[in-house]
Amino acid sequence: MLVNRKLILAHFWLAFAVFGIALTLGAWQMFIRSPIGTWLSNPELYYRSLTAHGTVMGYVFPTLVAMGFGYAISEAALQQRLVGVRWAWVGFWLIVAGSVMAVIPIALGRASVLYTFYPPLIGNVFYYLGVVLVVVGSWIWVALMSVNLRVWRRAHPGAPVPLAMFANVAGSYLWAWTAVGAALELLLQIIPVAAGLKSTIDAGLARVFFSWTLHAIVYFWLMPTYIAYYTIVPRAIGGRIYSDSMARISFILFLVVAMPIGMHHTFADPQVGAGFKFIHSAFTALVALPTLLTVFTICASVEIAARLRGGRGMFGWIRALPWDNPMMLALAFSFIMLGFGGAGGLINMSYQLDASIHNTQWITGHFHLIFGGAIVIMYFAIAYDLWPHLTGRELIDVRLIRTQLWLWFIGMIVTTFPWHWVGILGMPRRMAYFDFGDPAIAPQALSVTLSAIGGFILLASGIMFIVILARGMRTPKIDAGPYRFALAVHQPATVPVALNTHALWVALMIGLTLTNYGYPILNLALSSGTSVPAVYVGAQ
Amino acid sequence: MSTRDLFTLRNSHFRIGVGITAAILIVTAIAGFIVLPFAQPWVKFADVWDAICSAAGVPQRAAGVTAPEQGKRLSEVVLTSNTLARPSQEAIGRGATLAQRCAICHGPTGVSRADSPNLAGQYAAVIYKQLHDFRSGARTNAVMSPFAINLTDQEITDLSNYYAYLPRLPAYHPTPQLPKPNIVIYGAPMRGIAPCGACHGSLDNKTGSPWLEGQSEAYMKAQLHAFAAGERRNDISQQMRNIARAMTPQEIEAAAAYYASQPPDVVKAVD
Fold it and tell me: 3-state class of A440 per DSSP?
């Protein structure tokens, strides 16, 4: 039951439009700092583009996808009209306003601070206010998800919350809490300096605040993908979820352990104590657990589908899978990229191994593989799956869809594998250009060129994606039927209260944040002499 | 189904969830704060509490390291994107009048005959910062300090805009251009030295860094030695001091001679 289709479509279209722009910028960046592009005479243009690319891809695009998908889940899974539609539109327009407000100073070269802010660099105040508006807009969504679930519960006392909605609300709570770190950094530290009220800033404290946001935000980006794994893929390929409880436990584990781990981003920072770095590293290892649970459950669910289709043998069932189904293809690609990206992640989270790749191109390769690869390819799949239900029209270009997914997968591998490699060789990240004529780095020219070619494959795939969706708005009308989510092998009749509500896990999430971040933040906030002069972008 | 049933020890999910989480936290805390600090034989701790404080990141003064001197003034100049934006013709005119008293050393056209810096066409931010530092005492010079001490903020801004407005002229006695020494092209990555041009204008300009082409060789050498010896200390976060300390005397010589031999018109303009 999708009633507010226009609302959901607006979120998706805006998400994919800004995605298209940021993707183009990304491909240009790959090109300009590769040996096939000529040196950029003004490196500031590169950082301008990089800031726009990161701000859109990190804040605007995934947030809009999560919101649009969240509204769709709320209506389709709970079988009730969205409560608070007007507020949902307010949230949407806040994001539009915030994005415009942030992009103008970026385009003018007044906010080339990258999306991770990097104080003591300080850009134009409107950039930060724009980002704040985007976050506030998304918090409206968080509140609406909570309210809608509450309304449903009142009408269905004691009934198990549908898995998709349970996971969706878990994702929204995770986002609400993880965004607090960056919000504190912006409101207490950066915006007062950007507005000219102060001229010094505690950059170390700001980095700790940002690490609060920076890692769990990845799991917020991941949530729609995991929801699709569990509740769309099995239905789309004709199978069932292997275990409903396992799915709930995975989402709960994300809620608890995604938060108190961000300091593995600050391994090289002297202002954080080694003991806290160790605790965060240990909890980061734990976050592999829900992913491993998910890989197991989804493989089992897929096997069910294959056996139902007549698959036999220990591995023979793999051939019986519907490989021409875009959803199957997207899942397989996503898992492969998740596997490689996850293996790289294990290296990043271990203190000693991190030392060799910290701040190198390895890191950029890593998060592009996980986010741009494993996560975004499922965003495509979600859009393809929902589109006929949102537009009432069929997506007829199935072959084109498959090509698009293949190209995205190939492009991402071609882009990120050499990227990891040059990182191991020590190539630093955040560089506008390299002198490949220098004998010391000339051998890396080939890898960087390959990477840039991968970037163009991704751009081609991205354009195809938008074309497919746009053409899907003009095909003849059909009746797509009600939107359904996958069922479990054993659909739960009752669920223990702990697996049907979020309170306990939210409490643990906040508790662990206090234990793992409380002292480092207080220590830095209360120490004197830790601030440094701000460096204003564009000051000459 | 209420939260009362949830947050109670009778609920096995509550017991297991909270129990496992707390157990992991305690085990990792003991490992991170007690076991691992003592596993490093090269670090000595007075007692367990000392190890815990160290692992928690409590600020401590390491033995054998003297505290930085607090008596010396540090640079306090802050530049925002509006500080020197779009000077009016009047401001430049006021600066020109004020600059008459600078001409004795810095030359009537902003090109010095006295081994003082050439100011014609220098980045405004550079002159602005140095004048503020001379005024506050963060940088001192027997000749320059008395000139700066009575300048107002407005006068400093006007002077900066005036000199930035002047055309860049070649030095009075240009020498034949020298080839680029390695320290200028590559810096010395293993010693943490970036190529000079990464900040000083030929590749990129970092706010507050002057362009150096055609400046007096004696002046540049003296400044590099002063940075290395810690006599000049108005560079933010010791950027120049760290570089100068790591340079060899030969490299200082080569860099100063190279820059002195270059014409100033190759410098990157500011947007």
Answer: coil
